[in-house]
Amino acid sequence: MLELATISLINGVVYGLLLFMLTSGLTLIFSMMGVLNFAHASVFMLGAYLSFQLGRYVGFWPAIVIAPLACGLVGAAIERYGLRRVHSSGHVAEILFTFGLAYVIEELVTMIWGRNAVANDVPATIDFALFTVFGTTFPAYKGLMMAISVAMFVFLFLVLTRTRIGLIIRAALTHPRMVDALGHDVPGVFALVFAMGSALAGLAGVIGGFMLLTQPTLAHAVGPIVFVIVVLGGLGSLYGALVASMLIGILQTFAVAVDYSLADALRAMGVAIVRGSPLYEVASIKLATAAPVIPYLLLVLMLIVRPRGLFGTRDA
Amino acid sequence: MRAYRTVGLALACALGAGTAAADVRIAFIDPLSGGAASTGILAQKTHQFYIDAINAAGGLNGEKLELVSFDNKVNAQESLIQLKKALDDGARFVVQGNGSAVALALTDAVQKYNERNPGKEVVYLNYAAVDPALTNEKCSFWHFRFDADADMKMAAMTNVIAQDKKIQKVYLINQDYSFGKAVAAAANKMLAEKRPDIKIVGDELHPLQKVQDFSPYVAKIKASGADTVITGNWSNDMVLLIKAGKDAGLKVNWETYYGGSPGTVTAVREAGVGTLKQVSEWHKNALPELDATVASFDKRFPGVENEYAYWRAKTMWELFAAAAKKAQSNDPVKVARALEGMKMQTSLGEVEMRADNHQILQPLYVSTLERGQKYDAEGTGLGWKTDAKVDGKATSLPTSCKMERPK
To answer: In a 10 Å sphere around its CB, with 0-12 CB exposed, 13-18 middle and 19+ buried, how is residue B79 labelled?
Structure first.
């Protein structure tokens, strides 16, 4: 029991931090620019592919630097030549633009790397067991992932609250004309923010690609859960994204470990649901089987009870 | 009658945007976009390959075959729409394989269509959907299955397990839909019969193609103390499961249906040596030399994503051609009647299309991933080695099918 609980906790934290890596860039872009970027998971996927490709030529360590930078450049280009043009048409146009972009990126990736998963193996330098608990090994790349995820949080937090550029970014969101009048390049600031968000997605992709499958459907596979976290944590709240990621990661992992159903719980309270009764089918679903639904259930509940999310400042 | 049909078809072809003169239209309804597209597209290429071979040899009864593809996104509802399109397009044969839910919907739709449209019947060739119901309670005269069903594969798998006294605790993990449940049910039943001393320490169902991180499941398998995992998982669910197992250092035998599906060997590599097993109708080292058609397929479609996987498609088209020849007609009803009970010698052994439920009987192989095999998988240097071969006849199981045949 202790064994399963310990391992589940570790797994939950790992999964939670992976989710945070995925969402941090999205949260940054949303909180600073008000753009809900549907192509975020696609840039994540692009990061995984680029690191796979670069890793073959220059090795893993240079790739983990170059791939996110390349994603940042892609992000800057998207902002400069795409988003900026549709910006004047309002949020719906922006959302539709990023939505379409997600499809374009998926098709491009399919054209270049094919439909099947590429062999994005963990590089030899980090392919070892970091430690062993109760006979279960903990791979080093997951350790690296956790470290990067935490570093991302600290970096974003410090940049936004402790630096001059963070001050300008935040001011540009609420008072763009005033910031402009003070001599700051507001469009440039927005391009920088979008590039930074994209670079974070790319970095997440480099390391996330080892844990998930590097294939064209990757963006599609992680897309929905990313939005669940952003809404749950509160749109635009970095802190909220971290809390929501950890919450979902740990909750979902522990739910898988629980082999009890609603019927079992009711039986313990003295209420028996017998086979054949109308509720039997639903009540006898084990929590473990329902685990992957939990994030979406939380999403619906949150939208009903508190639409702004855990730490959000405005309604979704 | 025949003259009218030929005239009608010729007219249809003339109207059909000037496509090459094709006489027999075969609709391929499978995923060509979305998550399962890689499997669907590989199957499409394989069917095309064998149909081209039939055409190159002069076609069937003087007519050429044409494969027309329809994308169903592995969705039952979408498949019915595509079937309608295919029928409007003049297709008389339907080929499908991915997803038993789709297969059940298609059998039902084909059955109803044929009842309502006598003289325009359609025959459904299923090359991969393995829910046993399709050749038992839900069987239909119009449906022919060219893959061993989930029970037959489990019988072969459990025969090998029964011999291995080291196996004591088994964990079942499967996808939460008709096929996954069928695998779990078959494993429970057959292990209880063949090795009552084996303890089933877990019977897990997880959502189909939705799980990104299998670590929590692996933690559970580990905590259960299982020495063997039985799974019918395919595609991403197979690859991610075994990857999570490798990461956590889980040491078990992987008894799988689709351990040979694309990406699995690449994901596990050395960690799968001696432990990853699969049940299949063929693998690259089944014969001492690679089959000539497999070699020429590899030449025509190079690359890892095109690695040959559908031996049963070869069997299917050879049997189909033989049936059409025997019937001396490409009329679906006549071909279907000729297919019933048809036997054929292949390089692997005898195959037979059962007349009572339209389930093929073909040799099955239980194989393990090993080093130093002649032909490797996915360029990893590791290849499949046969542990046991079951002859086609021996894979036969009783059926509850009560088939209604057209008069």
So the answer is: buried
- Residues on chain A touching B35 (C-beta within 8 angstroms): 217, 220-221
Same domain for B379 and B231, yes or no, is yes
Tokens 């019918």, residue located = B232
DSSP one-letter code for B288 = S
Residue B88 placed within a domain = yes
Same structural domain, B43 and B97: yes
Residues A82-108 pLDDT 10s: 999 998 888 899 999 999 999 999 999
Q: Which residue has 């240097």 as its token pair?
A: B381
Q: What is chain B's Cα-based Rg?
A: 21
The rounded distance, in Å, linking the Cα atoms of B36 and B209 is 9
CA within 13 Å, CB half, B177: 16
Name the amino acid, one letter, at A28.
L
Structural domains of chain A, ranges and CATH numbers in brackets: 2-258 (1.10.3470)
Contacts of A134 (CB under 8 A, 6+ apart): A3, A6, A7, B222
**For A261, which DSSP code?**
B
Does B144 share its domain with B28?
yes
In a domain, B166, yes or no: yes
Range of the domain at B209: 151-280+363-395
pLDDT digits (tens, 9 = 90+) for B106-153: 999 999 999 999 999 999 999 999 999 999 999 999 999 999 999 999
* Complex prediction ipTM: 0.88
User: Which residues are B295's β-sheet partners?
Assistant: none
Element (H, E) at A264: helix A262-268
Cβ distance B206 to A289 less than 8 Å, yes or no, reads yes
Tell me the CA distances in angstroms from A61 to A49, A53, A56, A70, A145, one per residue in order: 15, 13, 11, 15, 14
Q: H or E segment at B91?
A: none
Chain A residues inside the 8 Å CB shell of B219: 4, 7-8, 11, 136, 257
Identify whether B354 is part of a domain: yes
Give residue B290's region: left, alpha or beta (phi > 0; psi -120 to 50). beta
3 state DSSP class of B350: strand
Residue B228, C-beta contacts closer than 8 angstroms, at least 6 positions apart: B161, B167, B169, B170, B171, B252, B253, B255
Would you call A292 and B207 a contact, using CB atoms and an 8 Å cutoff? yes
Of B392, B405, B402, B401, the closest CA to residue B147 belongs to: B392
B274-298 residue pLDDT tens: 999 999 999 999 999 999 999 999 9
CB A87 within 8 A of CB A21: no
Contacts of B212 in chain A (CB under 8 A): 212, 221-222, 225
Instruction: Give me the amino acid identity at A16.
Output: G
* Chain A residues lying within 8 Å of B206, measured CB to CB: 289, 292
Residues 6+ apart with CB under 8 A from A43: A25, A71, A74, A75, A105, A198, A201, A202, A205
Q: What is the CATH number of the domain that holds B160?
A: 3.40.50.2300
Coil vs helix vs strand at A140: helix
User: What Rg, from alpha-carbon coordinates, does chain A have?
Assistant: 21
Per residue in A34-44, pLDDT (tens digit) is: 888 999 999 99
Is A177 exposed, middle or buried (CB count within 10 Å of its CB: 0-12, 13-18, 19+)? Answer: exposed
pLDDT of residue A314: 63
Closest residue to A115, CB basis, from B38, B205, B220: B38
**Cβ within 8 Å, pair B220-A4:** yes
Give, as one character, the DSSP assignment of residue B380: S
List the single residue in B with minimal CA-CA distance to A258: B220
